[in-house]
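Per-residue structure
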Amino acid sequence: MIATFGSTNSALAAKAATDSIPVVFGQGGDPVQQGLVTSLNRPGGNVTGVTSQSGAVFGKQLGILHELLPQAVDLGVLSNPRNPLHDSVVKETQAAASIIGVTVEVFTASTSAEIDAVFTRITNERRVQALLVSNDTLFRGNKVQVAILAARSAVPAIYPFREQAEAGGLLSYGPDLGDRDREVGHYVGRILKGESPAVLPVQQESKFETVINMKTAKALGLSVPQSLLARADEVIE
């Protein structure tokens, strides 16, 4: 039994390594498009798991930024071009942006040094009014660096995970990872009891959370709407 969490690359590597050992993933994106399963309802092989459809998440994240900054029309998205989901991130974010009437500029980074370069560019060009940081292990692993650079650049940013807001990011919206892990564990248990991953439907994330860091909001001089505060699962004071 192999269980992978968060990284599409890990799930793809596990699938490439074996077609007999069951693999259960917990991640974002479309696993059909990624080549992990044949379909969501009937995966058809040795791989199944839990996923969140990134397009809907991007739409929600951009909507939150728009609610926080209604005058902002020039937004950015930070993505890792080495991530197999990069093209989908760009396409789905731009599609979501068009719905709410904003534009999105794409910034790419695949190393810590390139993250520095992105924020130097953002600071110097002053074209981006807010930033969406995509789901990638690079940005998650360097969450403090990204949060500090965003603050220095005075650019409000939204992140996919609670821990990034806890590390100083302005706010986060994304799946509850504890809930995702429990669902993955549930599938692992069912497979260990004899069920086949080929017929266990890929589960869609059902629990999402919003975390707002008011310390960062105050440092950026932002007034967070009461409607957004009321919906937050946690407000960090």
